[in-house]
Amino acid sequence: MFTVAAIALLVTLALALLRGLLGPTVFDRAQVANTVGTIAVMLLAVFGFLFGRPEFLDLAIIYGLLNVIGTIAVLKFFRYGDLGEPGDGEAGR
Is 45 buried (19+), middle (13-18) or exposed (0-12) by CB count in 10 A? Predict the structure, then answer.
């Protein structure tokens, strides 16, 4: 059962990568990056179960958090052109 789930996730990964290659806009590619990250989280969890390594679930949770933060950063960059305010040089005030 979990082997079938892993194969289905790999097929989904291949289809998502194909969509990323064919996507006409940068937002299509950002969505594919987020989808690939989500599939990676699910694959880590499934492989952890298949191989009897429960610590893979911890890695999947950490990777999922990094995936969300990375997606937000990329979308902020495309919307505003930078990731933070440059400031006015007066950090002590």
Answer: buried
For 65-79, write each residue's pLDDT tens digit. 999 998 888 888 888
* Residue 18 structural domain: 2-80
Residue 44 in domain: yes
Residue 7 domain flag? yes
Domain membership flag for residue 87: no
pLDDT for res 25: 84
Q: Return all residues near 45 (Cβ < 8 A) that are at least 6 apart.
A: 56, 57, 60
Phi, psi dihedral angles at 91 (to 5 degrees): -75, -25
Q: For the whole model, what pTM was predicted?
A: 0.74
